[in-house]
Amino acid sequence: MHDRATPADPLAAHDTVLVLDNLVKRFGSTTAVDGVNLEVLRGGFYGIVGPNGAGKTTTLSMITGLLRPDEGIVKVNGRDVWKDPAAAKRSIGVLPDKLRLFDRLTGRQLLHYAGSLRGLNGRTVRERSEELAEAFGLQDALGRLVSDYSAGMTKKVALAASMIHSPRLLVLDEPFEAVDPVSADTVTDILLKYVAHGGTVLLSSHSMGMIERVCDGVAIIVHGVVLSSGTVDAVRNGSTLEDRFLELAGSHKAVEGMEWLLSSLD
Amino acid sequence: MVAQLFRLRLAFLGNILTGTPRRVLGVVAGLVVAFVLVAIVCSRVLELRSATPMVARSDLVVSGSIIVFAFVVVPLILQRTDAVDPRRFSLFGIAPRPLALGLAVSSLVALPVVALILFALSSVVAWSRSPLETVCAVVGGALAVATCVLVGRLSSAFASLVLSTRRAREVAGVIGVFVLVLLAPAVVLALSLNWGGAAASWSESVSSTLGYTPLGAAWALPAAAAIDDPGAAFLSFVVAVLTVAVLWLAWRTLVSFMVTSTQRDDPSAEPAGLGWFGRFPSTPAGAIAARSLTYWSRDPRYFVPLIIVPIVPILMAIPLLLVSFPPTWYALIPLPVMCLFLGFSVHNDVALDNSAIWLHVVSGKRGIADRVGRMAPVLLLGLPLIGIGSVVTVFLSGNHAALPSVLGASTCLLFTIMGLGSLISARFPYGATRPGDSPFTQPQSIGSTSAIVQGVVVLGTLALSAPSIVFAILAETTAADDLHWASLEWGVGVGVLVLVLGALSGGAVFNRRGPELLQASLRS
């Protein structure tokens, strides 16, 4: 299950699924993403970690065509996402964070909608919807409105919808947020199987343990800059990923002040 | 064989009076109403005995043709399971020929055919002015009844054979309703063409044309004899006999095909639990149309604002009628106004999706599919509104000549505002009530964009519709009927052009500015 396809020649161009070249995004006077460079190889399971507000979601949105970068190039399978969006978007599956779904549809309708928008024919969409629902344990919920789903189930149905057109690259923003451990395990298994068959996953997460366990590559982003990237072993450099992350992100300062809170405990 | 099928049919007839008392009451009431209607029609036909042959011909040929047409169309639209479907007899091993004959003859006791026979008998009485006419009327009536019976059987069998899947039935039903809805103004339009003094000659020319078609030939036979036109009588006779012969062959062939074929419904072809999605093709545009319709019926943010559509004309009527604006003129106004308000509902459709629009953005260039799909609910409501509304409008105003103008202005307003809305909503989205909020709440941030955009859409629509509206007003004030037609031509021309261009340009803008649309929705 956990066997991963390791590319024979990592430098061969056709094995690079995703290239970010000096990506920059500014919001007014703040620079959210400040020259991010990244390469993800085919069959890679790549994680992006960073503190809140580090620019993870901004970076992922620019990869998926949801947010126009101010500078830089995003290439997926050699196609520029911002110059040739139709071709590039065909091979990307997207799970955004904090964006709404068409939640007045039932789960079945939402999957059907996502598949039809991707140009799949009706029979294919129905077959794949059933299989995805079974894989994600959503069979019993397909007839209910997505707005009535729990947060974790919503995440799962969105994840299923992102895969329905069999993309080459899955870009998942916080796929495990609000997902219970059992479901997270199921999702991890599905993703590992996908990667083992040549798919590529790029995800962001807060869970260092999860990243350490399943990812083979990782990038630590702080203040819109990649501080460290490479294989998980190279990045953690002998310690745990969490310690390395805290070290790079600047460990938390000693709590000063707030005596009123501490004194009330006496 | 024939006798057995006759008894079966009579048993069916008797059984309609069984069931719960409520049901029996309903059936009896329906029968009484139907009987009264048939009696009225037949008495009108009997009165034609004293009318001139030309008048009798026009009335009987036209009404007879309508009856034949009804026998073709009604089974296709009702699509009820056919109690005497030939396939039900396939296991009894009856030869197709006697079965076809038996089924056709036994339907003489079906209620619609009974009413038809009463009509035919009345027409025989109406034509019984001389022995020759009486003989012709009997022959013609018999041919007409045979035509109706056969065509009705064929139509029912066809409906159950070809329209056997749910999908096909729904599509056929929708098309049937649309055809009827769009046919209504067409018929009134045709009637209004020679509305002036030429009415008599017009109905005469229609009835003489119908007399050589399968629809009216049998009814025209005695009429042609009555006006001493043996050539026409012979031609009508030949057409009527050929019609019956061809129908009989078709019916026999269809029966032998149906009792030997083993076609069955394919239940797997019927998608379950997909709602509108199962009824539209699984293309991007079809899916977006299905999603729009689902939201229109499920989300109060869509259907609550629609309440304004029928209310506005009432509100407008009060001040106008107070200043003694002529009510027959006012009757022309509500339909165009309703079209304007209905079409306005797509002008900010993207904003109602809020950030869920990301799904359209990541799916590639779906701009045109998005624009077209969102128009589906408006067209589905708007086209029947125009079709039925225009006929109601001209009847209320008692002004048949104005029908082209009413059609032109309404179509122009609906299509133009949809076309403009398609472009504007992609280029200048502004905040809308968020999903899940009450439809009566104001959006968080509207700013001045909202007012400007709404103003531009409405004023632009009025400007583009001006030719059609101005021609309509001129036609009404100067009583120049040509201008009514100019209004229709300009209205439909401009409307279709703006709709198509709006969808194309809106789609292009959507493709280019998808990410910006998403950002705009996140701010609201």
Automatic annotation (TrEMBL), chain A:
<dbReference type="InterPro" id="IPR050763">
    <property type="entry name" value="ABC_transporter_ATP-binding"/>
</dbReference>
<dbReference type="GO" id="GO:0005524">
    <property type="term" value="F:ATP binding"/>
</dbReference>
<keyword id="KW-0046">Antibiotic resistance</keyword>
<feature type="domain" description="ABC transporter">
    <location>
        <begin position="18"/>
        <end position="248"/>
    </location>
</feature>
<keyword id="KW-0813">Transport</keyword>
<dbReference type="GO" id="GO:0016887">
    <property type="term" value="F:ATP hydrolysis activity"/>
</dbReference>
<dbReference type="GO" id="GO:0005886">
    <property type="term" value="C:plasma membrane"/>
</dbReference>
<dbReference type="GO" id="GO:0046677">
    <property type="term" value="P:response to antibiotic"/>
</dbReference>
<dbReference type="InterPro" id="IPR003439">
    <property type="entry name" value="ABC_transporter-like_ATP-bd"/>
</dbReference>
<dbReference type="InterPro" id="IPR027417">
    <property type="entry name" value="P-loop_NTPase"/>
</dbReference>
<dbReference type="InterPro" id="IPR003593">
    <property type="entry name" value="AAA+_ATPase"/>
</dbReference>
<dbReference type="Pfam" id="PF00005">
    <property type="entry name" value="ABC_tran"/>
</dbReference>
<keyword id="KW-0067">ATP-binding</keyword>
<keyword id="KW-0547">Nucleotide-binding</keyword>
<protein>
    <submittedName>
        <fullName>ABC transporter ATP-binding protein</fullName>
    </submittedName>
</protein>
